[in-house]
Specification:
The chain is α+β, with helices and mostly antiparallel strands. It folds into two domains: 21-69 and 101-122 and 546-812, no CATH class; 165-489, no CATH class. The chain is built from 22 helices and 31 strands. The strands form five sheets. Strands 1, 16, 17, 21, 22, 23, 24, 25, 26, 27, 29, 30 and 31 form a 13-stranded mixed β-sheet that branches. It has a nine-stranded mixed β-sheet with strand order 5-4-3-2-6-7-8-9-12, with helices on both faces. A hairpin with a 5-residue loop joins strand 29 (792-799) and strand 30. Helix 12 packs parallel to helix 17, helix 14 (445-452) packs antiparallel against helix 15 (455-467) and helix 16 packs antiparallel against helix 17 (509-528). The protein starts with 20 loop residues before the first strand and ends with a strand. Residues 1-11 have a biased composition (Basic residues). Residues 1-50, 85-108 are annotated as: Disordered. Residues 31-42 have a biased composition (Low complexity). It holds the Pfam family Peptidase_C11.
């Protein structure tokens, strides 16, 4: 149905043990909404903080009055016994961590229900119309053409297999290695390759507290060479240096180029990746060093003084336009992933062997081999996990994309500033987003341009697709064309830092102005709206039905915005005077007030009525439905002592008139007969062809983890696709690779957040009984089961074009 968000299909079963918490509180802090997993408003810093359940109009009137009144495997290959790479914390052989989440420690500022109640942040998808999948994917097609205005390649290939090659692998092992031995596994793959005589394969190691083999040092950084199937130590004690510092990388590049001169140089970053906002790397031994920003990568490559044939990132999220423009100054090609990588990472054996047989192989062919071997291995080993990898011609991109991006930016900014913000917001909210759980606001730029549909957007999309020479994705990763970009929607607290980054890397200022304008309008819309930041008013009967923000006047909104701009900005969570310089540069208060007044989501319609069949429904006009960008269901179970938070789902049902029907079956999502707390992460597609991803917080073999669940049009009942580990809040801004498997014999303790009747977050608990995995992960059964005899409270969260959230009144069953 047009303008209705996409929901997963609900398969209702019978049986199960119902909902119950187990044991004592765990003291972990919230598992449903810590940093990165927030159910509060997930855009522009989290949305206005509200107190109590007053109607939006009431708040506007009070503020207006105040204003007017003047108020203000190496062990087996190289000796040492043992054949696996499992560490003591996990029983699986190939497992990685993922820093998308952060449980935190439950600080006092996150202790009340008004700050915490709910589940996960927003998901992308929008209406079924705006979220339609693209009909022109560029996956699996090698493009050998070159634009006429592309610069000449800096690396000149001799031919006839005569080229000498030096491959520099920068392997910061971090917890990927210390916890799961993933770096050791990839070294093993390299050892199996037949490199021939003309390839120097060098590996710089460090960054891990404990290497899961008996060769690589855990106390000092080292440099190795792989030759004739052996790992040879070249430099034993480089020093215990942070691998996220540009000097460490540039020194390695200089050393490698000096000691192993070659016709072709390749550089591969191995570790975590955080995209344009997070940059590269997490050094487990130097957590305070942070990641290597794009400016830091630029400095390292510049100081290294080497021109590369290709630079690759065996990390998550580094196939961004911003990173490509940085690397284009030092390399001819980029190989990187838009999305988080599955835990197996690149598969090195095959493409290195092929390269070793012909060191004059065209770089396009090398890139294709890397991508094919990676995506094929992922499809075989971890089907269901999102996979992307693309090859970018930087010699072309650097000459063609900047101007098209500038034109697109100017045109989009004009739309934002001329009462067409809604069109931009709709395109942005429904574009393919990456690492949605991390809220890094990274989207596929081709998909975004396609959805914008302007002449400038189409020209930009064509230039981008022309520079993306090869791209492959998993079957459930649609609308991923090969290059992403930062475009703020879920939070605005990083806009200033990204603008500074653009200045540091020499990116055109027109794009910076565009995102500033968009973020500013989003903040203005949130300031002026009456949305609550939690379902608290709805849950506890404090929401005044029938009153809403739809009739707030432009004058009132103008007064609100003026007051906000003269404040410390703390009314928007995540914002302060230190990260809001973008607001003063682009906000026309009067124009913004007039637009918001004419385009408000009318919350007075969020009331429950009954249809002709006696069902409880929410009825909105088509115009109002067109403003709904996200829609999800909150459910809480009353166990007689308080409320168990069961999370956020997107099981949606509409009657023949298009009205939203409240669920009355008192069921919730379960895995193998046990009800779990579930949080939807990402939605793509329409009702006929879709992919939905969610997470289930748990302890896997005692370690804080999230199971990854996938529902798609081919697997409507869903399946468990893998897992990822959590991090302590603020530990790293980067994102790590997903776990590949959950093995038989593993133990799973599901987790939930618990709230007392006085609206306060009490603690997190085990949910249900411990589960011991007794069959393959692919055979786990997902369905909806009865929650039990206790009362349930259900409320829906609506999200508007400003990414502001509103909850319906609660229905109790």
């Amino acid at each position: 149905m047009e303008n209705r968000p996409v929901g997963r299909k609900k398969n209702v079963g019978t049986g199960g043990s119902g909902v119950h918490k187990r044991g004592e509180g765990l003291g972990t802090g919230p598992v449903g909404n810590s940093s990165g997993y927030s159910s509060g408003p997930s855009s522009f810093g989290g949305g206005p903080k509200r107190s109590g359940g007053r109607s939006p109009l009431f708040m506007l009137i009070v503020l207006a009055i105040l204003i007017l009144g003047g108020g203000g495997g190496l062990t087996s290959l190289l000796g040492g016994g043992g054949s696996g790479y499992s560490d003591s914390s996990t029983t699986q052989q190939y497992s990685n961590t993922n820093s998308q989440t952060s449980t935190g420690s439950g600080t006092s500022s996150l202790s009340t229900l008004s700050q915490l109640f709910g589940g996960y942040g927003s998901y992308s998808g929008g209406s079924s119309a705006s979220a339609a999948w693209s009909e022109t994917p560029n996956t699996g097609k090698l493009d050998t053409s070159v634009a006429s205005n592309a610069r000449a390649k800096r690396t000149v290939i001799k031919g006839n297999g005569e080229d000498t090659v030096t491959i520099m692998v920068y392997m910061c092992g971090a917890d990927l290695e210390s916890r799961s031995g993933m770096a050791s596994k990839d070294i093993q793959e390299m050892l199996k390759a037949d490199l021939g005589n003309n390839i120097n394969l060098l590996i710089y190691t460090g960054g891990a507290r404990q290497w899961q083999n008996n060769v690589v040092s855990s106390t000092t950084n080292q440099i190795y060479q792989i030759k004739n199937g052996k790992l040879n130590l070249l430099v034993d004690n480089v020093g215990n240096l942070p691998m996220t510092k540009p000097d460490t990388l540039s020194s390695y590049i200089k050393w490698a180029a000096t000691n192993y001169p070659a016709d072709r140089f390749e550089l591969i970053f191995w570790n975590h990746g955080g995209g344009s906002t997070g940059g590269y790397g997490y050094d487990e031994k130097f957590t305070s060093a942070g990641s290597m920003s794009l400016a830091g990568i630029n400095t390292a490559l510049k100081d290294g003084g080497v021109t590369f044939d290709f630079v690759g990132f065996d990390t998550c999220l580094m196939a961004t336009v911003e990173n490509a423009l940085v690397v284009s100054n030092y390399a001819d090609y980029l190989v990187a992933s838009e999305e988080t990588e599955p835990g197996i990472g690149w598969y090195y054996t095959d493409w290195l062997t092929s390269f070793g047989r012909n060191t004059s192989m065209d770089t396009l062919e090398i890139g294709k081999n890397i991508i094919d071997s990676f995506t094929n291995a992922c499809a075989q080993t971890c089907p269901g996990q999102k996979t992307t990898l693309s090859l970018i011609d930087l010699a072309e991109l650097s000459q063609t994309v900047p101007q098209e991006l500038a034109d697109f930016s100017k045109d989009t900014a004009n739309m934002i500033n001329s009462d067409e913000y809604s069109a931009v917001s709709t395109a942005r909210s429904s574009s393919r987003e990456f690492a949605s759980s991390s809220r890094i606001d990274q989207i596929d730029l081709v998909d975004f341009a396609n959805r914008m549909g302007t002449t400038e957007a189409k020209e930009l999309a064509n230039a981008l697709k022309s520079s993306i020479k090869y791209n492959r994705t998993s079957s459930n990763m649609t609308n991923a064309y090969g290059l992403s970009i930062y475009f703020p929607y879920k939070q605005s607290s990083k806009v200033d830092s990204m603008v500074n980054t653009y200045e540091n890397i020499g990116m055109d200022e027109d794009y910076a102005k565009c995102i500033q304008s968009f973020a500013t309008m989003g903040v203005a819309g949130q300031v002026a709206s009456g949305g609550t930041s939690t379902p608290m008013p709805s849950l506890f009967g404090e929401l005044s039905q029938g009153s809403g923000s739809g009739d707030a006047t432009a004058e009132m909104i103008s007064q609100l915005l003026t007051t906000f701009l003269s404040s410390d900005f703390s009314s928007i969570s995540g914002l302060s005077s230190s990260n809001t310089s973008f607001l003063g540069k682009s906000l026309d208060v009067e124009k913004a007030a007039n637009y918001i007044a004419a385009n408000q989501f009318d919350t007075s319609n969020l009331i429950w009525t009954q249809n002709s069949d006696g069902q409880d429904v929410i009825s909105l006009s088509e115009d109002q439905w067109s403003q709904v960008k996200d829609l999800s269901l909150n459910m809480f179970y009353d166990d007689g002592e308080g409320y168990i938070d069961l999370g956020l789902d997107n099981t949606l049902e509409f009657d023949s008139d298009g009205n939203l029907i409240a669920p009355s079956d008192k069921t919730w999502l379960a895995i193998d007969g046990q009800i779990v707390a579930y949080y939807v992460i990402d939605v793509q597609g329409d009702e006929n062809s879709y992919a939905i991803t969610g997470r289930v917080p748990c302890l896997l073999n005692g370690e804080r983890t999230n199971l990854i669940l996938v529902f798609d049009s081919e697997n409507e009942d869903g399946y468990v696709a893998g897992a990822n580990y959590d991090y302590v809040e603020g530990e790293t801004d980067t994102v790590a690779k997903n776990l590949t498997e959950i093995n038989e014999g593993d133990t799973i303790d599901f987790l939930c957040d618990y709230y007392s009747y006085d609206k306060t977050y009490e603690d997190s608990y085990y949910l249900g009984e411990q589960m011991t995995v007794s069959h393959p992960m692919s055979e786990m059964v997902i369905n909806n089961l009865p929650v039990g005899d206790g009362d349930v409270l259900v409320t829906y969260r609506f999200t508007d074009q400003f990414a502001q959230n509103y909850w319906t009144p609660t229905i109790k069953y």
